[in-house]
Write a structure and sequence with these properties.
- With 123 residues, the protein is mostly beta strands.
- It has no helices and eleven strands.
- 0% of the residues lie in helices and 50% in strands.
- The strands form two sheets. Strands 2, 4, 5, 6, 9, 10 and 11 form a seven-stranded mixed beta sheet that branches.
- A hairpin with a 6-residue loop joins strand 4 (33-39) and strand 5.
- The termini are far apart.
Length: 123
């Protein structure tokens, strides 16, 4: 049974940092592309960042230069380092995994999802 478990969310002031983790089990983690998505209150889920098995990465324009996605295959864990946080980054953050070699940008392309972790940035 595949499980993705996010952690590391919380309340932070604008300009602060958080690191989210996504711990995977039940799959050969290194074979999977991992994506981070977020869903702000009252809005649709949106792409944040993705990393594939070759460590290629891509980011949404709104987070580029502030967020960094990475992975540790030995720990079956992906990370999202979030710096210079803004109130508009407030959302539930989800990690997702897809058995593919490329980067994936839409929720429908991902097979597995975590339960989400809340990130709240105060002004």
């Amino acid at each position: 049974q595949v499980q993705l478990v996010e952690s590391g969310g919380g309340l932070v002031q604008a300009g602060g940092s958080l690191r989210l983790s996504c711990a995977a089990s039940g799959l050969t983690f290194s074979w999977y592309t991992v994506g981070w998505f977020r869903q702000p209150p009252g809005k649709e889920r949106e792409f944040v960042a993705a990393i594939n098995r070759n460590d290629d990465t891509d980011y949404a324009a709104s987070v580029k230069g502030r967020f960094t996605i990475s992975r540790d295959n030995a720990k079956s864990t992906a990370y999202l380092q979030m710096n210079s946080l803004k109130p508009e980054d407030t959302a539930v953050y989800y990690c997702a995994a897809d058995h593919t070699t490329g980067l994936r940008y839409t929720p429908l392309e991902y097979d597995y999802w975590g339960q989400g972790t809340q990130v709240t940035v105060s002004s």
